[in-house]
Structures are given as structure tokens and as C-alpha cells.
Amino acid sequence: MINNIIFDLDGTLVDTIKDIIDSFNKAYREIPRFINIRIQKKYLSLPLSQAIMKITPSIQASELRTLKKAFINHYDSSSLSKTELYPGVDDTLKFLKENKRRLFIVTNKRARPTKRILDAFKIDIFDGIITSDSNKGKILTKQQMLSLLIKKRSLLKGTMMMIGDTEYDIAAARSCGIISVAALYGYGKKSNLLKNGPDYTIKRIEDLKGVISRIERRATL
Questions:
Q1: Helix axes 89-98, 207-219, angle to 10 degrees
Q2: Residues 82, 19 contacting (CB under 8 angstroms)
Q3: What does CATH list as the number for 4-15+83-219?
Q4: For a Cys-Cys bond, which of 20, 47, 166, 199 suits 188, CB 3.0-4.6 Å?
Q5: How many Å apart are CA 7 and CA 161, to the nearest integer?
Q6: pLDDT tens digits for range 16-43
Q7: pTM higher than the cut 0.85
């Protein structure tokens, strides 16, 4: 039985891209030489520092600190008016919960904006949430977050599944020895996702029900 289902947040459950880009644009205006920088969507699923260094490889340490602080200030005070729940997410989560699945989030977001988003959409269905700052403020990689969740909850790897929209989600799931599902509707490039060899792919969140059914049906044969 797939009893423990782990979701990435951005690009998997919610589309946050417009609010994130707005906050990055405001933050970059505080550093004159980057005022006209183009924010590339493909980097926005990375942890904040990594995303900044990908967007602006020439950034200096002092500028990085300034930009991180500015982004956090802008994003944490954002109205989140442009953030949207992907179609079918609400019904799919409720279906899984009604069928006795434990649901978790593992996200590169910090705890504060994660809570704000879940509160905004009135989602109070998760059994546990691991954010990038869950380990006493030390920034964790996706693999480290998954490992922390497994350890904290004493989860059996054979009962787990990870759903994410980037190659980093798929690689983390594989490294931790759990089933990986690539969400092809999210931010990640399809070719990069497939290159990392996900166990399953879905074109919409509702497809997850069929994936779980197939896995469990095979297990009984």
C-alpha cells in the first residue's frame, strides 16, 4: 500500500510563479546593476540562494545577502493575489485523505510562506510539512528534507511516493529509495524530468489516483 504520499509545493500543488517573479523584480531593483535582469522561470524551484546565483552568476557575496533579504521581505509581505491552486488539487487531496493516505509536503520554500499559502487556500489536510528551514534554520536540500521526514516519522520506504515537477524532486526521491512521480504540468522541463527516470508521470494531479491504483494492483498479483 502507498500509505505515505509526499508532495512538492510550487509547481505541483500551487502555481506561485507570478508572485515569485514580482518579488524578485522588486528585490533586484535594490541593486542598480541588476535592475533590468530577466528572471528565468526554470530556476525558481531551486532554494533561494541557488536560484539567485543561477539568475545572476556574477553576483557578489554582499549583493547576494542584500538580494535574499529584499526578496524575503517582498515575498513575505505579498498579498499572494497571483498564486493559484492547480485544478483538481483540492478534490485529489480530499480523495487521498478519505482513502486513509497520509499526506506530506516537502518544499524548498521556507516555513512562513508555506503556511501563508496553505492558509490562503484553507488547506489543513497534511500530516507533516518539511520546509527548507526545518532544521533549525539551516537550509536543507530536497534529499535532506526527504531523509529528515523519513527519520522523523519512521516511514517505511516501500510505502512512500514523492510527486514533484522538477528533476531535483525526482533525483531526491530516487536517492532516498522511494517511488517518484513527475508532474509534467509544473515548472520543470519535460525532457529534464524524463532524463532523470521518474517511475511514473502525470499530466494532471487527478492522474495520481490511477498511478496509485496500478502500483497497488501489481503488488497483489
A1: 30
A2: yes
A3: 3.40.50.1000
A4: 166
A5: 8
A6: 999 999 999 999 999 999 988 999 888 8
A7: yes
